[in-house]
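Figure 6 in text form: structure in, sequence out.
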């Protein structure tokens, strides 16, 4: 059973930076494409970023492109999300997720990811 555990969330002011981490266990981490999603208060979960299994390809939501960077360390079974220039609208619970499928039709869809962490809260004050 794959387990994902996020950490690194917190309360910061607008313009600050945070780095989220996701520790993976119980599966072959290097075989999975990984994603970050977030769920703002009262809203649906939304796609943030995705990275291919070998780290060669990354994809971002328009709202975070240029500010957030997704990365991974397969030797350590770790996924990261570097968040810079944070805005109040980035406030959400952030989740990491794993996609072990050979082919994915819509990498921004939550349905493509079989395994999820419990989430970490990020709050950005204005």
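Output sequence:
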């Amino acid at each position: 059973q794959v387990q994902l555990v996020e950490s690194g969330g917190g309360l910061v002011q607008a313009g600050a930076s945070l780095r989220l981490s996701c520790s993976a266990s119980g599966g072959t981490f290097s075989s999975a494409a990984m994603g970050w999603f977030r769920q703002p208060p009262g809203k649906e979960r939304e796609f943030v970023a995705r990275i291919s299994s070998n780290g060669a390809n990354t994809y971002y939501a328009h709202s975070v492109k240029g500010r957030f960077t997704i990365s991974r360390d397969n030797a350590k079974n770790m996924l990261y999300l570097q968040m810079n220039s944070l805005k109040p609208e980035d406030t959400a619970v952030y989740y990491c997720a794993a996609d072990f499928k050979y082919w994915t039709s819509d990498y921004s869809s939550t349905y493509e990811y079989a395994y999820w962490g419990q989430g970490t809260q990020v709050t950005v004050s204005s």
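Caption detail: The chain has a mean pLDDT of 96.
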